[in-house]
Design goal:
By secondary structure, the chain is an alpha/beta fold. It has 2 domains: 195 residues, Rossmann fold, CATH 3.40.50; 159 residues, Response regulator (Rossmann fold). Helix content is 44%, strand content 19%. Strands 2-3-1-4-5-6 form a 6-stranded mixed beta sheet, with helices on both faces. The longest helix is centred in the N-terminal third of the chain and has 23 residues. It starts with a helix and ends in a 14-residue tail after the last helix. Belongs to the leucine-binding protein family. This is ABC transporter substrate-binding protein. It comes from Bradyrhizobium hipponense. Keywords: Amino-acid transport, Signal, Transport.
Length: 401
């Protein structure tokens, strides 16, 4: 009996020691640097944090015996603040991977901090092509969209349909400038003309003077090289000025389903736009979006869907690698195809661009919509190797040519 009791006590001691050891392991922290309160809050913000938490929950909440913890911070659309948050997360809070980093200037700033520390950063909300060109890094991933892909899908379709003269209304920072440049290249290469441009401050409320310049150009298309609240306000004010009734088309070069909902179908109908994801594409997108909507009371944007997909892909790589070492994890992330509701046969290239299908949509007329959020008609599916910049065109120092 003494031997039996001794064995039981010994086994209990081993089990309790193992449990204590597992509890002693620090959590695996991933950090989101987001716009939680300004013009991109609907696109990323609390929805991106929620998507990351959903990915962690669905993964089981832990990996390699470590609990997974999701952090989030508001960068207030300030590049210096974004850099400081990234520095604090990586140096002081023990964050292993940074996700989203909404807005391009803030992403470029945070990306440099992560690069200097050999940490993985996955961009979901920002669009600047610089993130996979000059600013690329061995542990940098550009997951959802970029200015080249947006320009290529939307600009090409517009010019081919006869909308061949453009005037750009551009947000005056990295993303807007890159989006204007990339779209201009597509327009000119396809045989169109660029008649001019005007730059506006980020998060402005009055577009009247900018829109009047665009109207005076008599361009067939006014290209909006901006995003979020700026896109919404520009489209609404263009309708108030009667610009679209006068025959000019407004082309939002980056718009999300949340933007279209804010604008309303009466004003937004007929707009052409490129997206990386839409909640109503198929059974898989609808299933994820239903779960997301139960929490956020609206469907996910492409950036938020991309957060879920990319966090899941990262965690799978950590588990397979048996470590959080950036080199080992990134090697597996690049070797492993991505097949989920967001991407089919997605692949992360050597420059960090995640190749996946892009979609060209037309915004429905009110009479065509079955209800709120039923906003898009699918016009075309563009394979990733056609939508995004080729490796031959890349200016990423990591690309071997």
């Amino acid at each position: 009996m003494k031997r039996i009791l001794s064995g039981i006590f010994a086994a209990a001691f081993v089990l309790s020691a193992s449990a204590a050891q597992a509890q002693d392991k620090p959590p695996l922290k991933i950090g989101g640097i987001l716009d939680m309160s300004s013009l991109y809050a609907d696109i990323t913000g609390p929805g991106s944090e929620t998507a990351a938490k959903m990915a962690v929950e669905d993964f089981g909440g832990e990996v390699l015996g470590r609990k997974i913890q999701v952090l989030a911070a508001d960068h207030l659309n300030k590049a210096d603040l974004s850099a400081n948050i990234a520095r604090d997360m990586l140096d002081n809070q023990g964050v292993e991977m940074i996700y989203d980093v909404a807005a391009s200037a803030t992403a470029l700033a945070a990306g440099e901090i992560a690069k200097a520390r050999n940490k993985i950063v996955i961009f979901n909300g920002p669009g600047s092509i610089r993130l996979t060109n000059e600013a690329c890094g061995p542990y940098t991933v550009h997951y959802v969209f970029d200015t080249f892909g947006q320009a290529n899908v939307t600009g090409l379709a517009a010019v081919k349909s006869g909308l061949d003269s453009w005037f750009f209304l551009t947000a005056d920072y990295a993303f807007g400038q890159d989006l204007e440049k990339d779209t201009s290249n597509v327009v000119i290469e396809t045989g169109g003309k660029v008649l001019g441009n005007v730059r506006h401050p980020l998060n402005t409320s009055d577009f009247s003077s900018f829109l009047l310049q665009a109207q005076a150009s008599k361009a067939k298309v006014i290209g909006l090289a901006n995003a979020g609240g700026d896109t919404v306000n520009a489209i609404k004010q263009a309708a108030e000025f009667g610009i679209t009734k006068g025959g000019q088309k407004i082309s939002p070069l980056l718009a999300f389903v949340t933007d279209i909902d804010s604008i309303g179908l009466e004003t937004a109908q007929g707009l052409l736009l490129a997206e990386a994801f839409y909640w109503d594409l198929n059974d898989d997108t609808r299933a994820f979006s239903k779960r997301f909507t139960e929490r956020m009371k609206r469907p996910p944007t492409s950036a938020q869907a991309g957060v879920y997909s990319s966090v899941t892909h990262y965690l799978k790589a950590v588990k397979a690698a048996g470590t959080t070492d950036s080199a080992a994890v990134m090697k597996l992330m690049k070797e492993t195809p991505i097949n989920d509701f967001f991407a089919k046969n997605g692949k992360i290239r050597e420059d960090g661009r995640m190749l996946h299908d892009m979609y060209l949509f037309e915004v429905k007329k009110p009479s065509e919509s079955k209800g709120r959020w039923d906003d898009y008609k699918l016009l075309a599916t563009v394979p990733g190797n056609e939508a995004f910049q080729s490796l031959e065109q890349s200016r990423c120092p990591l690309v071997k040519k």
